[in-house]
Amino acid sequence: QVQLVESGGGLVQAGGSLKLSCVASGRTFSNYGMAWFRQVPGKERAFVAGITWSGLHTFYADSVKGRFTISRDNAKSTLYLQMNILIPGDTAVYYCASDQYIRRAVFSRRLDAYDYWGQGTQVTVSS
User: Fold this and answer.
1) Are 78 and 5 in contact (CB under 8 A)?
2) Phi-psi region of 14 (alpha: psi -120 to 50; beta: other; left: phi over 0)
3) Contact assessment for residue 39 and residue 95, using Cβ atoms and an 8 Å cutoff
4) pLDDT tens-digit series, residues 32-69
5) How far apart are alpha carbons 34 and 117 in whole angstroms?
6) Residue 37's closest CA among 45, 27, 26?
7) Whole-angstrom Cα distance, residue 73 to residue 70?
8) Residue 6's beta-bridge partner residues?
9) Helix, strand, coil percentages in the chain from 3-state DSSP, rounded to 5
10) Distance CA 120, CA 101 (A)
11) Do the Cβ atoms of 1 and 115 come closer than 8 Å?
């Protein structure tokens, strides 16, 4: 059974930093693209950042480009999201997700491209 477990969320002041982690188990982590999404109450879950199975290519939502960095350590089956220069608009529950297709050729930002999700970790940025 595939499991994704996030950690690293918390309360931080605007301008601060946090690093999220997502540990995966249950299938060969290095074969699957991974992504971070976030959700606020009343809104649809939104793409934040993604990384291909190889780790060679990364993708970002315009709102976080230049502030967030996604990375992966395939030896540790762990996905990361380094978040810098946080703003109150970044406040959300953050979820990691695993692509449903092995070694997908073209990275997807669509929610339905991902078949396994973590439980979410709350990030709150105070002004």
Assistant:
1) no
2) beta
3) yes
4) 999 999 999 999 999 999 999 999 999 999 999 999 99
5) 10
6) 45
7) 11
8) 22
9) 10, 50, 40
10) 22
11) no
For residue 106, the 8-state DSSP code is S
Count of helix runs (H) and strand runs (E) in the chain: 0, 11
Bridge partners (DSSP) listed for residue 122: 93
End-to-end alpha-carbon separation of the chain, Å? Answer: 40
Which residue is listed with tokens 């879950």? 45
3-state secondary structure of 25: strand
DSSP string covering 9-36: -EEEETT--EEEEEEEESS-GGGS-EEE
Q: Which two tokens stand for residue 117?
A: 């999700």
Q: Are 116 and 31 in contact (CB under 8 A)?
A: no
Residue pair 49/58 in contact by the 8 Å Cβ criterion: yes
pLDDT digits (tens, 9 = 90+) for 83-116: 999 999 999 999 999 999 999 989 999 999 999 9
Structure tokens at 6: 């996030």
